[in-house]
């Protein structure tokens, strides 16, 4: 059964770092559009970072220069390195590989 399983969320202090992981089982990331989204309860889910099928990488303006999206060499795990975290980065984070979605992992940035 194809699925994505996320991990790495938790509590961080402002200015701190977290790394989110998204492990694929039952399929690989080859030829898939890979994205991270985030959502605050009561608000729409918003795009954070993307690796397109051709390998190009893009970031939402609010995270550019602080977050980094990447995959492992086997193309089965997607990462989101989050540095210089801010309270406004607090949200549920979801990974997406084309039609597949992870279950979400919560990130809280607070002192």
Quick summary:
Helices cover 0% and strands 50% of the residues. It has strands spanning 3-7, 10-12, 18-25, 34-39, 46-51, 57-59, 67-71, 77-82, 91-97, 100-101, 105-109.
What is the alpha-carbon Rg in Å? 13 Å
Alpha-carbon distance between the two ends = 40 Å
Instruction: Please give the share of residues in helix.
Output: under 10%
Proportion of strand residues: over 45%
Q: Write down the overall geometry.
A: globular
Total count of strands: 11
Instruction: Output mean pLDDT.
Output: 95
Number of helices: 0
Q: Report the order of strands and helices.
A: EEEEEEEEEEE
**Based on helices, strands and strand pairing, what is the structural class?**
mainly beta
Low-confidence spans: pLDDT under 50, at least 5 residues?
A: none
Summarize the biggest pleated sheet. Answer: 7 strands, mixed
Q: In oligomeric terms, what are we looking at? A: single chain
């Amino acid at each position: 059964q194809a699925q994505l399983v996320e991990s790495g969320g938790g509590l961080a202090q402002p200015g701190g770092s977290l790394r989110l992981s998204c492990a694929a089982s039952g399929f690989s990331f080859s030829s898939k559009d890979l994205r991270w989204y985030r959502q605050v309860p009561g608000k729409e889910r918003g795009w954070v970072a993307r690796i397109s099928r051709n390998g190009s990488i893009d970031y939402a303006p609010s995270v550019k220069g602080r977050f980094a999206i990447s995959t492992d060499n086997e193309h089965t795990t997607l990462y989101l390195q989050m540095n210089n975290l801010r309270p406004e980065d607090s949200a549920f984070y979801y990974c997406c590989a084309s039609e597949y979605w992870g279950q979400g992992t919560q990130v809280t940035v607070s002192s």
